[in-house]
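Ticket #4471: structure export looks truncated?
Reporter: QA, pipeline team
Priority: medium

Steps to reproduce: submit the single chain below to the structure queue and open the exported record.
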Amino acid sequence: QVQLVESGGGSVQAGGSLRLSCAVSGYTPSYYWMGWFRQAPGKEREGVATINDLDSTRYADSVKGRFTISKEDAKNTLYLQMNSLKPEDTAMYYCAFKYGISYGLAPTDFGYWGQGTQVTVSS
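Actual output as written to the record:
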């Protein structure tokens, strides 16, 4: 059973940075995608960035050039470095995992989820 635990959320002023971490366990390290998703109050959950076992990445247009997804296989940890944060980045951030080779940012494709970590950006 794949398990994911996020950490690193918090409050920051616009223009600041945060790094989210996600400890992932119980998975077979081949043919998979991991990713970060977010959900703001009253909005649907949306994909932010994903990465696969070969380090291929995908980003939502809204975060390209500001956010960087990465992973450290030796530590079974997924990261999201967020720079130049904006108030519209405020949301609960979730990490997620799926097996398979098809890429994408659709939350419905991912079957394993963490509990989330809150990111609040003030203007």
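Status: closed, not a bug. The export was complete when the record was re-opened. Leaving a note from the reviewer for reference: The chain has no helices and eleven strands.
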